[in-house]
Amino acid sequence: MTVSVLISSAVGFLVWTFVEYAMHNFNGHQMKGRTGFSRDHLKHHAEEGYFAPLSAKILRAGLIIPAVYVLVVPFVPWECALAFTLSFLGGHVLYEVVHYRLHFYVPQNAYMRWAAKHHFAHHFNCPKHNHGVTTSLWDHVFGTYRQVEEVRVPRRLAMVWLVDEGTNDVILSCQDTFRLTGRARRA
């Protein structure tokens, strides 16, 4: 594997992280429901557990990924364009997996704990900030990063994994980061 292929892979992943940020900030929020993606994204914020249908995500990726290759291949050798495109796709898949796991599973490592705090601060405390899901790099670059010490989660929107059924409070492993607000859910 040549150095240029490795560099192309790294750049493809880096470009994906920018697209993730831009997609979330500009299309997801600033379009205010004027695009299908924005409508799905705003519904994702309003309804606990809502994600756009997988078929819509596959269709969007199926249109974007070949376009990425076609846009890159005139400027670099085909193997570099392929490495860039595959890393871009890998970044997209990583984003989808991380984002889904944040909403449905207890964070099990330091990275996922950081990502949960960063992402849910965006969801519940500061929706104009912290648009990156897998990284805060572009939030820092564009001035949309906000450090949050405690994430206040409305009970009606709380992730299922966050609430201890026995105490109806935040699970023990997350009490240093999350606090439930509002009325308890009825049994």
Describe the structure.
The protein is mainly α. Helices cover 57% and strands 6% of the residues. The chain contains six helices and four strands, in the order H-H-H-H-H-H-E-E-E-E. The protein has helices at residues 3-30, 36-46, 54-72, 78-104, 110-124, 137-142; strands spanning 151-154, 163-164, 169-170, 178-181. It has a two-stranded parallel sheet. Helix 1 (3-30) crosses helix 2 (36-46). It is elongated and about 60 Å long. The mean pLDDT is 94.
Q: Tell me the number of helical segments per DSSP (H or I, 4 or more residues long).
A: 6
User: What general form does the structure show?
Assistant: elongated
Oligomer: single chain
Which structural category fits the helices and strands? mainly alpha
Q: What's the order of the H and E elements? A: HHHHHHEEEE
Low-pLDDT windows of residues: none
Q: First CA to last CA: what distance?
A: 58 Å
**Radius of gyration of CA atoms, rounded to a whole number:** 18 Å
Overall mean pLDDT stands at: 94
Largest sheet: 2 strands, parallel
DSSP, total strands: 4
Give helix % range: 55-70%
Give the SSE map:
Elements: H1 3-30, H2 36-46, H3 54-72, H4 78-104, H5 110-124, H6 137-142, E1 151-154, E2 163-164, E3 169-170, E4 178-181
Parallel strand pairs: 1-4
Antiparallel strand pairs: 2-3
Structural descriptors:
187 residues; mainly alpha; two-stranded parallel sheet
Quick structural overview:
With about 190 residues, the protein is mainly α. The protein has helices at about 5-30, 35-45, 55-70, 80-105, 110-125, 135-140; strands spanning about 150-155, 165, 170, 180.
